[in-house]
Each structure stands twice: as C-alpha cells, then as structure tokens.
Amino acid sequence: MNYKYIILLIILISAVLMSGCVNNNKEQSTDTGLENATGIDELPIQVDIEDRFIPGSFDKYYKTQPSEYLLRMYELSSSMENVVIDLQDGNISSANQSFNIFSKNYKNSSKMVDDWKRYYDTGEIDDLGKAIHSGNISEAFEMMDKVRDACTDCHREIRYVVWAIYDWKNFQDVKMNTTDTKKSQVSWTTAKTKYLMPGFEGIGIGIREGQKEQTAKSFKLFKNMFISMKDACGSCHNTQRKYYVNDDVMSKIDVMEKEISTGNMDKAEKIRLEIGIECHKCHIIHEPLQRIRELEE
Predict the structure, then answer these.
(1) What's the CATH class of domain 56-167?
(2) Mean pLDDT confidence for 8-35
(3) Could you tell me which of 140, 162, 212, 262 has the fewest CB atoms within 10 Å of its CB?
(4) Residue 211 CB neighbours (<10 A)
(5) DSSP bridge pairs for 176
(6) Domain residue spans in the chain?
(7) What are the CA-CA distances from residue 211 to residues 33, 120, 207, 240 (Å)?
(8) What confidence score (pLDDT) does residue 63 get?
(9) Residue 167: how many CB atoms within 10 A of its CB?
C-alpha cells in the first residue's frame, strides 16, 4: 500500500473518531445507555494481506529479544560508517578492508526478508567497492550517497510501521476503569469514546445551553474518567508523567470544578479548553503510530 494512502486513511479515521465522540452528549449516563452513544465500537482496522507492509517472515527476526534484525542493522550501519570515516581520513587501504566487511553485512542483510530485497542494490555496492579500490574518493562518496538513498527509502516506508507493530503497545490492550456498574473495565478506545469524551464535551454543551446541573453531571463523569486514564498510562509508562496527565493538569480540573460549582461558567469553559490543548498534545504523540498499527493488523 502506498504510504501516502496510509496517511490519508489515518486522517479519515481521526475525523470519524472526532465526529463520533461528540454525539448524544446530552444523554450520557454513568451507568446505562452509553454503549450506543457514539456508534463506534472496537476499532481494529482490517487490511488485506496483499497490502501488508510487514511480511510474516519478519516476525522471527524481530520478536526475539534483543531483536536479531535490529542487531544486524546496527552491524550494517556501523560497518558503513567505518567506510565513511576511512574515506574522510584518506586511508584507502583501511577503507578497502572496511568495505569488505560492509559489503558482506549488506548482502547478508538483503537476504533476510525476501519482500524487502527491492530496497537493496548489490550492483551499487559493487560500484562503491570499485571506486574505493581505485582510490577515487570523490566517486566513492557519490556512490555512498546512492547507497544511503536506498537505505532511506526503506526506512521511510518500513521503519515506523515496524516500530508501531513491535515496539509500541496496542491501545486496544490497555484497559480503563469506568463508572458503568455493568461494564467496569473496557478498552482504552471504548473508554475514551463512550465515557471520557462524552463527559468532556458534555461540560461545554451544558455551559453553552446554561444547564448547570447537566454541566456538573458531565464534569463528574469527565473527572472520574480522566483519573482512570491517568492510572491506565501506567500500562506502558513506569515513570511519573510530566505532561498531559500531570499535577498541573489535575490542578486545572480541580479549579474547573470550583468554577462550575460557583456558577462561573465562562472561567470553567476557558479552563476546559486549556485542558483540551493538553489532550491534543498527547494525541499528536500517541495516535499516529496506533493508527498505523491498526491499519497493519
């Protein structure tokens, strides 16, 4: 699948999620009626096997710890840079020795995943070797640039998908507690779309419509779910969070609660929007790789 189409799909999915999250906020409840509030259920995106970026044969190299494929890439990169250093020093004898190691690593790497052989050009490697052997440093650097360009093409199309699949935990596996007595724990996606967002958006709707009781009810749902979300961050992070769900944001939530209780709705809405900006920052960091993962699985 062309990477541009992947990006387009990510944008479309995000748009659907954003439109779905704000539906029927007036009807949200802490115990019933939320299952159909957004029309969105669990969201594993299905992709035809022909469109997979990551072939099944790659699993055996990357699922091991440490990753065999990653170790091979480190060896390849190190041997490549060794050639560059020797050429910069004008040491042709050493450059030839370094090239032999690099060439061997390159050709071995090209055989690991059949589907990715198209990113390797052993002919360019041979031309690089000839340039080094002849002592033509300028030509050697030109050939090295061509080799780098091929490496970059692979990295641009493949690397981030690999990270998303193998190094990034799946949000669908992260569970959040809810206020629903019938479904106390759900996936991150369900918790966000059916509980957290209805609470957050319900505050704004209540303020705009002058419904203080509804606003307070939405705030209670939002605060409870935000705390649950903060706890769920521990599924991946083992250090204290300094952003997005940190003490500064929690303080804003406490202040918003006071403003709502005293009827200062304009101030409450201003704080709500400030909290929304922090949410957006978190989305920028976490959402792209999750969407790539969903498209790949």
Answers:
(1) mainly alpha
(2) 38
(3) 262
(4) 15
(5) 186
(6) 3-51+173-296, 56-167
(7) 20, 64, 6, 37
(8) 83
(9) 11
